[in-house]
Each structure stands twice: as C-alpha cells, then as structure tokens.
Design a protein that fits this description.
Elements lengths: L4 H13 L6 E4 L4 E2 L6 E4 L3 H8 L3 H10 L2 E4 L2 H6 L14 H6 L1 H6 L23 H12 L3 H8 L17 H16 L6 E5 L5 H10 L2 E6 L2 H13 L6 E5 L10 E7 L10 H11 E14 L13 H6 L8 H10 L3 E7 L1 H17 L1 H7 L2 H19 L3 E9 L31
Parallel strand pairs: 1-3, 5-6, 5-8, 6-7, 8-9
Antiparallel strand pairs: 1-2, 3-4, 9-11, 10-11
Length: 436
C-alpha cells in the first residue's frame, strides 16, 4: 500500500528532531496530520522531500522553502522556534542510514529522482575568498536586491543594522534615529571633524552626522545600488558639500587621517582571516586620539569556533562569505592593532526587536516585496529575519558596539574620566561646536 505523504513527512521530522514533529502537516496528495494549535507545514510537491534527500539538513529545508515547494502557515516564529524547546537542540541533519530505511516509501511516493536545481537566489561566487572582486560580488548579492525592496523592509530610515529602542513602545524609526545619535555621541562628533563611514549603506548615518553634528563625511560602500541612492539622498538634503559617497572598498581608502571612524554592520563581511588587516587599516586611517565605533553581530558563546558553515542557509542565501566572530575575537583584534577598547555595549535584545519590526514590514506589504524582488528573494528575507529574531532572543547570537581609541600623546585622553550617559538623546545644545 502506498503510504500517505503526511505520515512520511512526520517520520522525517521525527528523524531530524529526535522527537515528534510538533506541527500539523498538509501534503500534495491531500493527506494531512493535525496538531491542535500548531502551525502547519505545507509540502506542495514531492520535490521538497527530494531536496532534503540530496541536502539532508538545513540547506535542503531552506531550498525547499525558498523555492516554494515547502511553506509554513500560521505563526512563523513558533514554527522556527520549537527546536529550542527540545531537551537537546538538534542539528537538523539526517544521516544516510535513516534515509535508507525510508527508501521504500520515498520510491512509492515518487520522491526520488534527479537532484533539483537550487533556487536562483542561491549565491554562486567565484575567485579567492575575500578578494576585492569576490567581496564586491558577495555584497552585490545581498544589497543590490532593489532599493524599493529595502525601503519597504527597513522603513523611511533606510538603516539596515540594529536599532536602539529608548523605550519598549518606541517605533522602529524612533529607535533607528536613537541608534544613529548614539553612535555620534560615542564618537564625540563636533562641528568641523572629519568622519569616515565604513560600509555606509544608503547613507543614513552620514546624513545624520553631517546634518546634526556638522562634520565632514567620507562614506564608502561597494554596493552600486547603495552608492547611487545615498548620493541622491545627500543631494536632496543639500549636503553634498559635507558628505562624499564613494564606491570604494575600505582597503582602498588612502586619504586619512580621520578624526573618527564608524563601522556599523560591516565587520561581519570581512572574514576571520582578514580581521587583523581590517583593524590595522582603520588604525592607520585614524588620527592619534581619534575614536573608532565598531558595531558588529557576534557569535554566541555556544556557537563553536569562528569559522563559516558553507552549507548553512545564511552562507548560501543571505551573507555569502560572511563570517561572525565572537566578541572576544573583535576585542583581541582591535587591541592587537594598537587600539585601546574603552567601552562595550551589548544590544542583543534591541536587535531582536529590530528584526521583528522588519518581519512585520515585509509581511504587511508582501505583494509589493515580491513584485520588487522575486518570490524566492522575499521568502529568503522572511526566513532570515524571523530566524535572526529568535537567535537574538535566545542568546545564540549577539551584537555589540565597541568604542576604541587610538592612543595619542602621553598624558592626553580623549574620553572623560567617568562613562558618559550616551543613551540620552542629544539636544541642540549638545550639538553646538565644542560639545560632546
């Protein structure tokens, strides 16, 4: 007798998790299983299971979801979060022996066949890892999706990094403005200073620093789409005399020194082997006594060694060649480059709130998101941001702001004796020349 597909899916789920699948299942053959109050796993085509046979783990599941062969109805966060509630969080991988035991049912349901092609949204990079050319391709894969898509996702601020919520009820726009101002205050920006914005995105931080603090900004990105829109926004704000946007890698900047450097959400793209060179480069571009603000996502304490997983969903679809390091690694690299790390602030809970806000933006305008990117790309971002929110909420991933100083002349110190209350929003008096 041919088995029902839903029963086979439930068995595959049990093998993946080491526990019963706590989700309802609905399959292409009309079969279903029901778990009251649980989200529903929808398997639209046998190809979804075939993807799991050829990539028996996270990658196969991701390919099935991105392609639309697999879907989730109901609470996406509950569907992605239940493995954390199991006694031992599974690795989401099937061994070949488990699959072999299910060969008969897989054959009878016509699941087996040639390996399906990966969805077109999967990254395919060439060249030496973290070379200038390959890094540009990796950045293009993630950021050159379409400015309309990112406006929808991020909201009017166009800030694609962790917001800073001054209170739980703050809007995303209020929280992003608070983050931009927090960075300015930590850097001690004053009118007339020269600031380098490394990985400037669509120019939001450069705009904030130039308009609110009167600094001169060199903003660099290697994304064509970001550079083009950032230049238009700066021109519209009448700030072309204060902000220069360059389509340039930070390794190519050679016109220091700068009074301050901000690197917000960029170090994740550098790679473990290149981090010492990154820190040394920024140290060389900063004047003695200048401040560096390095804002970066960090691997959680239980995440294992600082090395990328080539088979992960994030590596294949979201951040190709991206590598998360531990907080300890970031501190060590900055210190070995000659910086003195003066302050560390963990923003993990803020990033969970930020990611949930982005998911809401995406889901509320889903049809527009699909129209301005592709069905697969919109599904990549929905899965990525929902999973990221859970990772931050459950301590698997963190994000930190490190304030570091390049030591100056003996006896001079650019920071006050006591730690300032940087969390306080700046007033117009705080932004007057000489304040900070």
């Amino acid at each position: 007798m041919t088995p029902r597909a839903a029963e086979l899916v439930s068995e595959l789920g049990r093998l993946l998790l080491g526990a019963p699948l706590p989700m309802s299942v609905r399959c292409w053959d009309g079969s279903r299983t029901v778990v009251d109050g649980a989200p529903t796993l929808v398997v639209r085509h046998p190809r979804a299971l075939r993807r799991l046979v050829y990539a028996p783990g996270e990658l196969g599941l991701a390919r099935a979801y991105v392609s639309g062969d697999l879907d989730i109805e109901g609470d996406l966060f509950a569907a992605l979060g239940f493995p954390d509630d199991l006694p031992s969080r599974p690795e989401l991988a099937l061994d070949r022996r488990a699959l072999a035991r299910l060969a008969g049912p897989l054959l009878r349901l016509r699941v087996l066949g040639p390996p399906p092609a990966p969805p077109p949204e999967e990254a395919r990079l060439r060249g030496s890892r973290h070379s200038l050319g390959r890094d540009r391709s990796a950045i293009s894969h993630h950021y050159d999706v379409g400015n309309d898509f990112y406006r929808l996702l991020l909201g009017p601020s166009l800030v694609y990094s962790c917001a800073y919520f001054p209170e739980p009820g703050a809007t995303l726009e209020q929280a992003q403005e608070a983050k931009l101002d927090l960075v300015c205050r930590k850097l001690g920006l004053e009118q007339g200073m020269r600031l380098l914005d490394v990985g400037c995105g669509w120019g939001s931080f450069a705009l904030h620093a130039a308009s609110r603090y009167g600094v001169s900004v060199v903003a660099v990105t290697i994304s064509d789409a970001q550079a083009g829109l950032a230049r238009r926004r700066i021109a519209d704000a009448g700030l072309t005399d204060r902000v220069e946007v360059r389509l340039q890698d930070y390794r190519e900047v050679d016109d220091g020194p700068f009074d301050a450097i901000a690197s917000i959400g960029m170090a994740e793209h550098v790679g473990h082997a290149s981090l010492p060179g990154y820190a040394a480069r920024l140290h060389g571009l900063l004047r003695p006594g200048g401040r560096l603000l390095n804002h970066a996502i960090a691997r959680g304490p239980a995440a294992g060694p600082d090395r990328p997983d080539p088979g992960s969903f994030l590596t294949r679809y979201v951040f190709p060649d991206g590598e998360l390091q531990s907080l300890a690694t970031h501190v060590q690299v900055l210190e070995e480059a000659g910086f003195e790390v003066r302050d560390v602030e963990a923003l993990r809970r803020h990033y969970a709130l930020t990611c949930r806000s982005w998911v809401r933006n995406l889901e509320q305008r889903w049809d527009d998101a699909v129209r301005w990117s592709s069905p697969g790309r919109a599904r990549v971002w929905r899965l990525y941001l929902a999973g990221s929110a859970l990772a931050f909420e459950r301590h698997r991933t963190g994000v930190n702001q490190l304030l570091a100083v390049k030591p100056g002349r003996r006896g001079a110190d650019p920071l006050p004796l006591l730690r300032p209350d940087w969390s306080r929003q700046a007033t117009s008096d705080d932004r007057r020349p000489g304040a900070g």
